Amino acid sequence: MARGQQKVQSQQKAAEKAAKLKKGHNANDQKKAAQKALQHICSICKAQMPDPKTYKQHFENKHPKMEMPEFLKDF
Ligand SMILES: [Zn+2]
């Protein structure tokens, strides 16, 4: 009986540990995404872009005569 109980407890602990790890991982991802979003600031007019694709469209529309940053050409 005691053995069975111990097994259940260790399973619960393992599940808790996994949940914590998962939670921490997600928090890190969100933080990274937020930091990444802030990095897309137009070098010409300093407008903030949510993603590179929007930045590229903005660049094409607002600054067609300016040279597009190299990393935007991939999007
Ligand atoms: Zn701009």
Which descriptors apply to this entry?
75 residues; mainly alpha; binds zinc ion
Structural commentary:
The structure is a single chain. With 75 residues, the protein is mainly alpha-helical. The protein has one domain. 65% of the residues lie in helices and 0% in strands. The protein has two helices and no strands. The site of zinc ion has 7 residues, from helix 2.
Q: How are the SSEs placed, and which strands pair?
A:
Elements: H1 2-39, H2 52-62
Bound molecules: zinc ion.
Zinc ion (ZN) binds next to helix 2.
Number of strands: 0
How many domains, in number, for the residues? 1
**What are the secondary-structure elements, in order, as H or E?**
HH
Gross morphology is rod-shaped
- Fraction of residues in helix: 55-70%
**Share of residues in strands:** under 5%
Structural class: mainly alpha
Q: Tell me the number of helical segments per DSSP (H or I, 4 or more residues long).
A: 2
Present as ligands are: zinc ion
Separation of the first and last Cα atoms: 61 Å
Largest sheet: none
- Average pLDDT works out at 83
Radius of gyration: 23 Å
Unreliable segments (pLDDT under 50, ≥5 consecutive)? none
Structure at a glance:
The protein is mostly helical. Helix content is 65%, strand content 0%.
